[in-house]
Amino acid sequence: MKLDLISFPICPFVQRSVITLLEKGAAYEVTYIDLANKPEWFLALSPLGKVPVLRVDDEHVIFESAVINEFVNEVTPGDFHPQDPVAKAHDRAWIAFAETLLFDQYRLMMAEDANTFEAAWHDTEPRLARVDAAVAGPLWRGEAFSLVDAAVAPLLQRYEVVDRITALPDYADFTNLRGWWTALRERPAVAGSVPNDFEDQVHNYFREKDSHFGRQC
C-alpha cells in the first residue's frame, strides 16, 4: 500500500498523523505544500482545503487527521485503541476534544495583543484542567501508546514552546500534562514528527503574523 501524506511542516494536525505513521513503522512519503499558496491539485483533493490529506495508492483520498489515524491504525499491525468498546469510544471522544484544544491554542498564539492573549488563555485553561485530571500517566492510558497520545502530543509540544516564551499563568500547575509531555518527547516518533528547526519555524510563523506571542519570540 502506497501512502503519501500531504503536509505543511509545522501543522499540528499533520503532526498527529506523522506520529501515528512513525509509531506504526509504516512506509510513507510526504508531499509539502505552501498553505499560503495552495496548489489547485491539492484543492481538488481536499474538500476543506486543509492538511493533512493522505493519498492511498495514488487513487484514494482520506482527509482529517483523526480519520487518517484511524485508517493507519487499522491497516498496520498492532492496535493503538483499547479493545473494550466503551474505552475505545472514550478515547475517540478525547481525540475530538483535543482538536478543540488545538484550535484554542491557535487562537492564543494568534492573539493580537496581551489582553486578547490573556483572555484566550483563561478561556482554555478549564478545558486543559479536564485533560490534566483524566490522563493516567505517564502516557494517556499508562505505559501503552494510544491514538490519544498521537492526538495530544502536538498540543503539549506547542504549550511548552509558548510557556517558555511567555510564562503562561498557572501552566506549571498542570503537572500531569507536563509529565505526559516529558514521556512523549522521549519517543523517537514524536521527536521525528517535526523538523529539526521546529521552534525556529514556529517563532518565525507567528512573527510574520505579528501576533502577541510572535512579538515575544
Would you kindly provide a brief summary of this structure?
The protein has 217 residues and is of the alpha+beta class. The chain has 10 helices and 4 strands.
Can you offer a commentary on this structure?
Strand 1 (3-7), helix 1 (12-24) and strand 2 (29-32) form a beta-alpha-beta unit. It is built from ten helices and four strands; from the N terminus they run E-H-E-H-E-E-H-H-H-H-H-H-H-H. The protein is globular and about 50 Å long. The termini are far apart. By secondary structure, the chain is an alpha+beta fold. It has a four-stranded mixed sheet with strand order 2-1-3-4, with helices on one face.
Beta percentage is: 5-15%
Structural class: alpha+beta
- The helicity comes to 55-70%
N- and C-termini, Cα separation: 42 Å
Report low-confidence residues grouped into runs of 5 or more: none
Number of E-state strands: 4
Main beta sheet, described? Answer: 4 strands, mixed
Instruction: Give the strand line-up of the largest sheet.
Output: 2-1-3-4
| C-alpha Rg (nearest Å) | 17 Å
Name the shape in a single word: globular
The pLDDT mean sits at 97
Which characteristics define this entry?
alpha+beta
Topology at a glance:
Layout: E1 3-7, H1 12-24, E2 29-32, H2 40-45, E3 53-56, E4 60-63, H3 65-75, H4 85-110, H5 114-134, H6 147-166, H7 175-185, H8 188-191, H9 198-208, H10 212-216
Parallel strand pairs: 1-2
Antiparallel strand pairs: 1-3, 3-4
